[in-house]
Amino acid sequence: MENTDNDGDTKDDEVNMEGATSQNEETGTTEEAEVTPDDTICQFFLLGRCRFGDKCRNRHIGLPSASNDSHVTKDNKGKGNQASKPKGKKPPMKTATDVISRIQWDTQLPKERFIVGYLDRFLGTIEKPFSAFCWEDLASLGVDVLAIPKHRIQYFKYQDLVVWDKVSRIDNIFGSTGSSLTILDIIDRYELMMQAERNKVEDNSGQEQDDVTANEVEEPKVEELEEKDCATVDHADTRRLRPTHFIAVRISSEDVKCSVKEVQNVLQKHNIDMAEFCIPLPELHLTLCLLHLESSEDIEAAYTVLQELKSDMQRLLPPSLILSFEGLKDFHSRVLYLEPAPIPGFGSFVNRLNQSFRTKGLKIIDPPQANSFHLTIAKMPRSVASRNPSLLFRPEVYRTVTLTHFGAQHIDCLSFCYAGSSRRTDGFYTTLLELPLY
User: Fold this and answer.
1) Which terminus of the chain faces fewer neighbouring Cβ atoms within 10 Å, N or C?
2) CB neighbours of residue 280 within 10 Å
3) What is the pLDDT along the chain (438 residues), one digit of tens a residue?
């Protein structure tokens, strides 16, 4: 009876197994023997550092899950490994120190054409030429040199083009941020662009050059050139050079600025299109000398002239210098300006300044009326005037201004400025040096 019972139990087990198999067949699934892995999640896999890979006894999943879908096959494990890898970092960007070193020591790069934009703690972002800075260790420098901590540098420019910018991660010096351009490419493209502009100017002889110093005057006559002495024989040649720097008296008088604004309002009331040719109030200045400086050595020579002249200023200048503006005038109805009243000794001082620059071998761009100082308040290119004569600054328009006195400016400082399109945060030209007169 025992054997019979055992056999009966065995048969029952077989029947149960067969029933289970048939049930699985009805559902369309085949149940296989399965080895249950350890349910512990691999902590090293979550960190992306599991070295056992598919052979790891712990589960490789992104997050713990109680669902049956959380078990990962071999193929899915491979995909999970790829997904868990950290995303690629941005390529490292060359630092301002790298850029400075490249500009300093690469003989293919003209240092005088680079501009540095840096953060001033009080004035905000300021631009100054690269050659104006001393790039030695700050601890070894005196108080009379221009030097800044390199972490304050925000960007570098080549002429007017930004070639390195810390905030926007532009690096066209080395191309370290993925750009296909380097500084040599930028220089080549810039030269091609400038050559195209020069060709355009030469093809259209009636088109005037844009004088960024607002000291535009009429063309010289042949007789005037013949009367020049030997010191200005190069005058005809230098007039076609584009000024790179200039010495000026900045207009800071609020009375003068208010008067200029009133005149500009009259012009715009007559024709709103004249607003485009009005000089912004922060840029108002009286130009004393136009310079064409081709290298960092030329800039250093200009610094030397100004420092040497500082000792003679009190002897050459009157006790007080005040520019008084009394009336409006124009050059060929294209340049509207204020002419100051004559100041005894001031013209001689300016002549001495120009002659000192020439003595150092620097190129001076003389206007034909060198002693005719003027404050330009509106300026129109000749090409625009020829296309649209209604925009000319006619006396019948600007003489409707009711002012009889346009204010006065005390001259106590000269500004050595860069004649490019860059401006300081206060709107004035980038200034390399401010030289007190007293």
Assistant:
1) N
2) 10
3) 444 444 444 444 444 444 444 444 444 444 444 444 445 778 777 777 777 777 787 877 654 443 344 444 444 444 444 444 445 677 889 999 999 999 999 988 998 899 999 998 887 888 889 988 888 877 767 666 788 889 999 999 998 888 999 988 999 999 888 877 889 988 888 888 777 777 666 555 444 444 444 444 344 333 333 334 434 434 445 556 788 999 999 999 999 999 999 999 999 998 898 899 999 999 999 999 999 998 888 888 898 888 888 777 766 777 778 889 988 888 888 899 998 888 777 888 888 888 889 998 999 987 655 446 889 999 998 888 888 888 888 888 888 888 888 999 988 888 999 988 888 888 899 888 888 877
Q: How far apart are CA 316 and CA 314, in angstroms?
A: 6
Q: Which amino acid is at 74?
A: K
Between CA 389 and CA 340 the distance in angstroms is 28
CB 339 within 8 A of CB 376: no
What's the helix, strand, coil split of the chain in %, to 5? Answer: 40, 20, 40
Residue 184 corresponds to which tokens in the numbers above?
């040599």
Q: Which of 266, 268, 264 is nearest to 280 (CA)?
A: 264
Whether 386 contacts 345, CB under 8 Å: no
- Residue 378 near residue 274, CB atoms below 8 Å: yes
